[in-house]
Design brief:
With about 425 residues, this protein is an alpha/beta fold. The chain has three domains: about 210 residues, Rossmann fold; about 80 residues, Orthogonal Bundle (Tyrosyl-Transfer RNA Synthetase); about 90 residues, RNA-binding S4 domain (Structural Genomics Hypothetical 15.5 Kd Protein In mrcA-pckA Intergenic Region, Chain A, Roll). Helices cover about 45% and strands about 15% of the residues. The chain has 17 helices and 14 strands. Strands 1-6-5-2-3-4 form a six-stranded mixed β-sheet, sandwiched between helices. It has a five-stranded mixed β-sheet with strand order 7-14-13-10-11, with no helix packed on it. Strands 8-9-12 form a three-stranded antiparallel β-sheet. The longest helix is centred in the last third of the chain and has 34 residues.
Length: about 425
């Protein structure tokens, strides 16, 4: 079995578009031109159940390689997720239970295969080898490296210099990730730039173990919708792979104009010639960025929801955001108003009045799917993002009397109508 040798145009796209670094670039290029199928390792710790577009940058590269006939080896980090990779953090992460990790992993895999071809993917779980580890195996692995080597990792070095605690389990994390490369005989490991140290450690451990050292392919970190920090669920500046078409489109439209070109480059297949035109138009202010951003939003939504989803979300955005119309098909949430029997949503009601019900708005936002939690719902109210029938709530308004058919709005594009509980 052989892989297809890329054309010069394909090779240029692989090596130069959406790439931060390749170690070693010359050797990686030689391997591609040799036509032998490569084992492309990428690991994900299922610490959270959702992927976002920041993850998609690397997954698109894997799909690009699959189209040439190379094999993706997807490592589900069901062991390392219980430790938590401290990259970019100044404190030890909370350990997850095996049950939480397993549940998140199933959700992850469903999202992986929206981008990566499952027929050309080998899924491996760390439990295949680490469940067999005993203390002797752990000691043997730790003898391969020194504490001084591990403290070269940027986040460890910063915490050591500022006398912040570093747990021994955290020092084990890069060793376990490196051992994955040995177990699956990885030819290339893909990751973000924050994974440079871990990936290079895998390369070193393979060489110690008598294997050919893997090449390291690093992709840029995608900046989130706030325009300043990397895309992250914990920072709330993310666009999720599982977002609805309307939410995905609207979030892309909310990014600062300075991110438009990088999003095109990292998340679409728009030709370089077209990309150069967009770059020139934005830098010279010779075109309205709104139109360019609409093209970007449509292309991204189309990848996950098809052309129909992209068209509908574009129409929804124009109607609800640009023309400030309420969507005719907005979702609803049913509440038991005065005179109605109790329901599953009774806990949202502080008291029922003659003409409505006093509702905990933060809880309502969470229950209606407009906020990931009641805490986030309260934050949305405090920052002035919530309206009731067009009136912006004050920061202190946590409970509000709602009447039947009231419309609750978050931001410029998310709505829910409050309807009476149907009679039983």
């Amino acid at each position: 079995m052989s892989a297809r040798i890329p054309t010069d145009k394909e090779l240029d796209a692989i090596l130069n578009r959406g790439v931060a670094d390749i170690i070693s670039r010359d050797e990686f290029t030689r391997l591609l031109k040799a036509g032998k199928p490569l084992r492309l390792k990428q690991g994900f710790d299922p610490t959270r159940p959702d992927l976002h577009l920041g993850h998609v940058v690397g997954l698109r590269k894997l799909r690009q390689m699959q189209e040439l006939g190379h094999q993706v080896v997807l490592i589900v980090g069901d062991w390392t997720a219980q430790i938590g990779d401290p990259s970019g953090r100044s404190e030890m992460r909370t350990m997850l239970s095996a049950e939480e990790v397993a549940e998140n992993a199933e959700t992850y895999l469903h999202q992986f295969f929206k981008i990566v071809d499952p027929k050309k993917t080998e899924v491996r779980r760390q439990t295949e080898w680490f469940d067999k580890f005993n203390l002797k195996d752990v000691i043997h692995l730790t003898r391969m490296f020194t504490v001084a080597q591990l403290l070269k990792r940027d986040d460890f070095a910063k915490r050591y210099d500022t006398e912040q605690p570093i747990a021994i389990t955290e020092l084990l994390y890069p060793l376990l990730q490196a051992y994955d490369s040995v177990m699956v005989h990885a030819d290339v490991e893909f990751g973000g730039t924050d994974q440079r140290f871990n990936n290079l450690l895998g390369r070193e451990l393979q060489e110690i173990s008598g294997q050919r050292p893997q090449q390291v392919f690093l992709v840029p970190i995608l900046v989130g919708t706030d325009g300043t920090q990397k895309m992250s669920k914990s920072l709330g500046n993310y666009i999720a792979v599982n977002d609805t078409p309307n939410d995905m489109y609207g979030k892309v439209m909310s990014i600062p104009d300075k991110l438009i070109v990088s999003y095109f480059e990292l998340l679409t297949d728009v030709p370089e010639t077209e990309l150069a035109v967009y770059r020139m138009q934005i830098e010279s202010a010779s075109a309205n960025p709104m139109g360019i951003k609409k093209r970007l939003a449509s292309l991204i939504v189309e990848q996950f929801h098809g052309k129909t989803g992209a068209a509908h979300s574009a129409e929804h955005f124009e109607r609800t955001v640009q023309h400030k119309e309420r969507p005719a098909d907005m979702p609803t949430i049913a509440l038991p108003f005065a005179g109605q029997a109790a329901s599953a949503n009774l806990d949202l009601i502080a008291k029922r009045t003659a003409d409505g019900a006093e509702i905990n708005i933060a809880k309502l936002l969470h229950r209606a799917g407009l906020a990931p939690s009641a805490t986030e719902g309260r934050r949305l109210i405090q920052q002035g993002s919530v309206k009731i029938d067009g009136r912006k709530l004050e920061a202190s308004e946590q409970s509000v009397v709602l009447r039947a058919n009231a419309v609750v709005q978050v931001g410029s594009r998310r709505f829910v109508k409050v309807i009476p509980e149907p009679p039983k």
